[in-house]
Amino acid sequence: MSLAKIRIVGGVPLHGQIRISGAKNAALPLMAACLLTDQKLTLTNVPKLSDIQSMTLLLDQHGVQIDTEQDRFELWAKDITNTVAPYDLVRKMRASILVLGPLVARTGQAKVSLPGGCSIGTRPVDIHINGLRQLGAHIDLTEGYIHAQAPQGLTGADITMPLISVTATENLMMAATLARGKTRLINAAREPEIIDLANCLNAMGAQITGAGTDTITIQGVEGLHSAQHCVVADRIETGTYAMAAVITGGELELTHTSVDLIAQVAGTLKQAGASLEATEQGLRVRAPTIPIQGVDIMTEPYPGFATDLQAQIMAVMSVCQGASMITETIFENRFMHVPELCRMGAHITVHNASALVRGVKSLSGAEVMATDLRASVCLVLAGLAAQGETIVNRVYHLDRGYENLEQKLGACGAMIERIAA
Ligand code: UD1
């Protein structure tokens, strides 16, 4: 685990172009999808991130042959030699649960560690488990592991999910591709990453309709085959850099992405006074010429405001004119960035699931740290706008989800560097 730090000298408006990478949260389920077939799955536009490395290690120990060349991954699950996903790999990355559905569907069995605690609150996996049970899998929870068995294969069913869950929708959609008969996932998540996964599975021979709506229908097929797929752009990275332009008073063009992926966030930033417009390659974001205006925000499942951008928008709102009420409805305990922002001069109070942000004129640099990925990047945004020097500790969180962060920001004028601990 890297103990490196990021050092930022703030106050420079960002100008230039940033290439947005493929989405981490699309690439992870797409990689797991390779387990559904004994033929090769080729993915392009895969971001270089430590979470992708974690998924590579996990798949490798299931017997998947993986060849990579830059952003191109060839994944070949010719023979699955091991159906156990061990604790020390799953613990590092909750998205490891995504191998559960494909393993059971393809081999009739899987043993996947329960993910356990997480710094952003309790995140159970009951929806994954109950959904697989409805598809006919027999599941026991013992010794910290999910033991799933379906020796006769899975059978399609109507599954109504009690809560909207992104990875549960993905897990069940993947499992259902090889089930006998038809499955309907009702109250499904609608994220662009779900659509991307469905497109790839369909290219592999699956029969999925309705991805991107709240009801997904999957007609099971005998087997899947090889395919090539380009990972959709990362909308969280897109939103983060859009906010970097706004908070520093700059102007950025974000390429290889689309304003449609961040419609809700674009609306919020426009209300705050910024301008966003589609360009041929992506979108252009210009900071307001007047002070940033306070806007109220509530996180919601897609197409609502993404919880993965809540910390970042709080950094922006901390220097607004007026105030902003930010309400987190997806995860409990996702305000760990608040005390760190306050140490940089922000004025924020938390009442249950809402944070009241009273805008201040400017932030001041400080040594800070965060306990998760999005909270860490929120401190980078704050540091870019702050007066003086900011040191962000625990850079390994950033490396989980932001490819070449310092290079991308540095090329646009930011004074940012990685320093050894
Ligand atoms: C995914 C994203 C993550 C994002 C989150 C919400 C990936 C790899 N990760 O995580 O970055 O923050 O969506 O947009 O795509 N829940 C249950 N039982 C379950 C599953 C979920 O109660 O079995 C609850 C969770 O605790 C949470 C809510 O449902 O309160 C939504 O979580 P979910 O959509 O499942 O998040 P992830 O898929 O883990």
Salient structural properties:
single chain, 421 residues, alpha/beta, 4-stranded mixed beta sheet, 14 helices, 24 strands, binds uridine-diphosphate-N-acetylglucosamine
Short description:
The chain has helices at residues 24-32, 50-62, 87-90, 100-107, 126-134, 166-177, 192-203, 235-248, 263-271, 310-317, 337-343, 373-385, 396-401, 405-410; strands at 5-9, 15-19, 40-44, 65-69, 72-76, 84-85, 109-113, 138-142, 145-149, 158-160, 182-186, 207-209, 215-219, 227-230, 251-255, 275-278, 282-286, 297-298, 323-327, 347-351, 354-358, 367-369, 389-393, 415-419. The chain has 421 residues and is α/β, with parallel strands linked by helices.
Describe this structure in words.
The structure is a single chain. This protein is of the alpha/beta class and 421 residues long. Helices cover 31% and strands 25% of the residues. It has a 4-stranded mixed sheet with strand order 22-23-1-24. A 4-stranded mixed sheet has the order 2-15-17-16, with helices on one face. A 4-stranded mixed sheet has the order 4-5-3-14. Helix 12 links the parallel strand 22 (367-369) and strand 23. The N and C termini lie close together (11 Å). Bound molecules: uridine-diphosphate-N-acetylglucosamine (UD1).
